[in-house]
């Protein structure tokens, strides 16, 4: 437990945490930004585990501009450090497919989300190779003060990761095209 809080220190930036974390991986390379020489190719879009929209009906993916640790086998870890382990985020209510819920006047409905994790680790197990999709070859972990646990959102591949960790190995994802209108 203590090592989690030492490595994922909420007083440090994502870059500082990644710089400290990379030391534990022999032969790993650290990319702190897309503009760093030789790193642009590691800042690619990941598809969600299932079609999920940009809020307005178009299938989306996710680009994460966090520091990346490229392991010697090509796997990629992304480190997203938070400034607190207990925080709130402003957002909007969404439908299960990602579209915004609208009020009677057609406005997005604001919501405040309570988050309780110190950092996020996103991993792409085969790096640059396809499919680059959560639930297929990419997964997310929450770093909490006392544990590292799978992210609790199915769009980030929660079901697949739980399946892998429990031994059944069933991957749960659906192939789709980013940029196309969501097909019900």
Report the sheet with the most strands, covering strand number, pairing sense and barrel closure: 6 strands, antiparallel
Structural class of the secondary elements?
alpha+beta
Q: What is the rounded distance between the termini?
A: 44 Å
Radius of gyration: 17 Å
Portion of residues in beta strands equals: 25-35%
Broad shape: globular
Percent in helix? 10-25%
Uncertain segments are none
Give a count of the beta strands, DSSP E runs of length 2 or more: 10
Strand line-up of the largest beta sheet: 1-4-5-8-9-10
Helix count equals 3
Give an overview of the whole structure.
The chain is globular, with a radius of gyration of 17 Å. The protein has a domain at 2-51 and 60-83 and 117-166. The protein has 184 residues and is of the alpha+beta class. It is built from three helices and ten strands. The strands form three sheets. The protein has a six-stranded antiparallel β-sheet with strand order 1-4-5-8-9-10. A two-stranded antiparallel ribbon has the order 2-3. Strands 6-7 form a two-stranded antiparallel ribbon. The mean pLDDT is 94.
Concise description?
With 184 residues, this protein is of the alpha+beta class. It contains three helices and ten strands; from the N terminus they run ααββββββββββα.
Key phrases:
184 residues, alpha+beta, 6-stranded antiparallel sheet, two-stranded antiparallel ribbon, 3 helices, 10 strands, 12% helix
Summarize the SSE layout with pairings.
Layout: H1 2-7, H2 14-21, E1 29-31, E2 45-47, E3 61-63, E4 68-70, E5 76-81, E6 87-92, E7 110-115, E8 119-124, E9 138-144, E10 147-150, H3 158-166
Antiparallel strand pairs: 1-4, 2-3, 4-5, 5-8, 6-7, 8-9, 9-10
């Amino acid at each position: 437990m203590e090592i989690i809080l030492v490595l994922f220190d909420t007083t440090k930036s994502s870059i500082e945490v990644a710089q400290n974390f990379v030391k534990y991986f022999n032969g790993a390379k650290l990319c702190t930004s897309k503009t760093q020489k030789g790193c642009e190719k590691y800042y690619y879009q990941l598809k969600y585990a299932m079609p999920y929209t940009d809020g307005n009906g178009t299938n989306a993916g996710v680009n994460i501009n966090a520091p990346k640790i490229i392991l010697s086998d090509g796997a990629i870890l992304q480190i997203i450090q938070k400034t607190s382990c207990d925080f709130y985020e402003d957002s909007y209510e969404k439908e299960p497919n990602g579209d915004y819920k609208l009020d009677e006047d057609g406005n997005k409905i604001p919501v405040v989300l309570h988050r309780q994790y110190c950092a996020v680790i996103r991993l792409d197990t085969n790096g640059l190779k396809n499919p680059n999709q959560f639930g297929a070859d990419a997964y997310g972990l929450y770093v909490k003060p006392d544990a590292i646990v799978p992210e609790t959102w199915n769009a980030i591949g929660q079901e697949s990761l739980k399946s892998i960790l429990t031994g059944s190995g069933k991957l749960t994802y659906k192939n789709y095209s980013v940029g196309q209108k969501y097909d019900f």
